[in-house]
Design goal:
2 helices, globular
Length: about 170
């Protein structure tokens, strides 16, 4: 692996602008989505959004994508070029089909044998879309009072990938 001794530029959000012919509400059917990775959201708590990552460069469905949580956006200036990257924590699919009862895909955090998170640095261009996760609640376990919106992605063992968050998610995840 090459060694880089220069500086990094860190960003707390990225904005995706894309053409959506199915959404005529934007100017010229253009749509904008913010993805955040900030240690202080609205002067309160951290916010680290989840994303769909295009894993094989054919974004037809979730079958060609992976789910990850953004921990940091950064860029590396090198030889008069800027290379944008994202530090992510991976999730893995539970099963090969959506849940029968909800129709939603199920995922869980990828954890290594030493109980640490599976992290990777990916190129910003592989980020396909923001995605919303819903916790999978246990049958009898009450939610601990300390669980807050900023800790909910660390508090549960598994999640549903919410295809009902917006019509773009519905089209991608159905």
């Amino acid at each position: 692996m090459p060694v880089y001794g220069g500086h990094l530029n860190v960003f707390h959000s990225a904005m995706a602008t894309f053409f959506t012919p199915s959404d005529p509400s934007g100017i010229g059917s253009m749509y904008r989505k913010h993805i955040r990775a900030t240690p202080l959201w609205r002067r309160r708590a951290a916010r680290y959004d989840t994303i769909l990552v295009d894993s094989d460069y054919s974004p037809n469905s979730i079958n060609s994508m992976e789910v990850a949580r953004v921990l940091c956006f950064f860029s590396i200036p090198y030889s008069n070029k800027t290379f944008p990257y994202v530090l992510v924590h991976w999730y893995k699919r539970i099963g090969s089909q959506p849940d029968n009862a909800t129709g939603l895909w199920m995922i869980c955090p990828m954890i290594r044998e030493d109980q640490s998170r599976k992290l990777s640095v990916i190129h910003l261009d592989s980020v396909f879309h923001a995605v919303h996760l819903l916790p999978m609640f246990g049958n009898s376990d009450p939610i601990h009072p300390a669980v807050h919106y900023d800790t909910s992605l660390d508090a549960f063992k598994a999640y549903y990938v919410n295809k009902f968050a917006d019509h773009h998610s519905f089209k991608i995840l159905s």
